Write the structure tokens for this entry.
Amino acid sequence: MKTNLRTTLGIAAAIFSLTFVSCQNESLDYFGQTASSRIQESLESARKVLLEAENGWAMEYFTASGGYNYAIRFIGTDTQGNPIDSLVAASELSYREPVGSYFRLTTDDGPILSFDTYNEVLHYFATPDSDNYQAYGGDFEFIILSATEDEVVLKGKRTGYISRMTPIRSGDILSVSQEAGLNSDKFVVLSASGFVNGERALVEFDLAMRNIIISGYQDDGQVDKANQIIEPFIITGDGVKFVDEIEAFGARFNSITVNQARTKLLISGVESSLNIDPVPSGYTLFKDFPGNYIFTYQTGEGKTVSRNVTLSISDQMNKYIMLSGFSNDYGIEFSYSYTDGCLHFYPQYVGELSSTDLVAVFTSDGNVVSNAAGIDLISDGNGGYRFKDNPNDRFYASYMVLFRDYEAEDGMWYYDQFFGWSPSLFIPKTLTRVR
């Protein structure tokens, strides 16, 4: 006997429907609630945890540019007592005044903490700009892996980096971020060498990118670069901490400390003897450059001139210092190098006059230095600084000049010396700090 196809499909659908309802009921009975209800409950629990830390949270925030100390306080009501999901945040890079914005708890295959309105502190590493279209490898949306009153563990939704928050027990977010900033400013360890578990070791710190490079040695005595360990770190009060444990020389550890005399690196529970290498002579901390100075330079006619100028921080993250006062129309920017503790000049556009771009460059024997710094600003040992030719620059430039950058009729861009601003040609000599 032939069975009607429509009848067969109808029976199958009825059986599937009954089975599905049965399984669904079993699922509800087994879990006690639906998946959406469980996620909503986890969000409410996370919100409660975030808001109950009255002093706020200290956050170890890891990015592709290393680890940084943040401090955040979550606020659940406005001044009239109305419910509101807002926050104030500070960091070791911007700790003069907390910045306010909002947050949102949402779902996306799990509970998400989103800093969904712009905050110059929280979005710094995650916001691209004209100079860095990929930003600095940070996140503003985080998967909440766990949330208790003692610790909140987050995972960057985009980068996958783990960040941890712990409640601030004393002080507030401003004092915590200020202390973290001071700790970072005074951490000047470039490298250390010695032995770990009986093996010869080299430990280097890339302070600009906040990465540690741990190396062993080959049989011929050369550094084993092929098997180097490179991990981001965050600066603590007594050393550095990593996002996860590092395995090296038969040991596992997640932090390295500096002894009180600041001569050795110490690894807890690991037999080690790592002597910190001295920094170069005249090394200056970035934080020590700002201040008022007398700038002495020589004009193109050989006349020595002095002006009152100011050095100030123009970019804390990328470590730029601005020299202003040399002219009423523009300032000159220097980049800081952790490697030698010096300021370095680089070619730059410094302003506009009558819609004409101007660029400050170094010249030597009539050549325009357009790709590297030619003069270093280094300590004179008396609180001031002197300008010195950078021997690594192939131009060995010794004077600065203002040029006009213009487009010719043939469509090509050229430099032409510009005498509209005075001085146009000068040889920098010294900066003497005004006490």
